[in-house]
Amino acid sequence: MPAVGSSAKNIFRSVFGAVQWSAPDWLLRLKQHAKSHPWRFWIVTLLVLVLLAAVVAGYHYYQQLPKPLQVSAEVVTPEIGHYQDDTEQPTPLLLKFKYDLASAVNPAQEQEPELGLELEPVLGSEQDMVRTSMPAPMLSAARLDLIGEVISDGVAISPAIPGK
């Protein structure tokens, strides 16, 4: 009964033919250098591995850094003005700003939900105006609607500093 290894070898040889491999010259020189100067060889090998690990760690660290918030602006062209009493009447220019939150959270994400911000006159309550003219609070550490006000919620300073 033939050995399993020899039958696999015969099948490999029948499919791919006989393979004869010889090491390249650089590998033979490296082997000879490792035998003649083992300490130097292992120190250089260790330094190359440490450098490779530092590159991988640096790349991983860079991927974990916060990504900048991308803002895109779209200009909606105004309609052709109409004339009233031989005077052209102004038409509003509409600017649409969109915060691309998906690229800041996950740059590899295919679908990019956007938070729209439109600057146009809003007739309604003041809260409606704030909601349409302010980005979501998570976008900035400093909310513009709180400028000049004393903030006590969500603020912790260590060590404690007297004042307001």
Protein architecture, described:
The chain has 164 residues and is of the alpha+beta class. The protein has 5 helices and 5 strands, in the order αααββββαβα. It has a 3-stranded antiparallel β-sheet. Strands 2-3 form a two-stranded antiparallel ribbon. A hairpin with a 2-residue loop joins β2 and β3. The relative contact order is 0.06.
Low-confidence stretches: 109-137
Compute the separation of the termini in Å. 92 Å
H/I helix tally: 5
Helicity level, as a percent range? 25-40%
Q: Biggest sheet, strands in spatial order?
A: 1-4-5
Radius of gyration: 34 Å
Shape: elongated
Strand content: 5-15%
Helices and strands in order:
Elements: H1 4-16, H2 25-36, H3 38-64, E1 70-76, E2 83-84, E3 87-88, E4 94-100, H4 101-105, E5 114-119, H5 126-133
Antiparallel strand pairs: 1-4, 2-3, 4-5
Helix pairs in contact: 2-3
Tell me briefly what this model is.
The protein has 164 residues and is α+β, with helices and mostly antiparallel strands. It is built from five helices and five strands; from the N terminus they run αααββββαβα.
Primary descriptors:
5 helices, 164 residues, two-stranded antiparallel sheet, 5 strands, alpha+beta
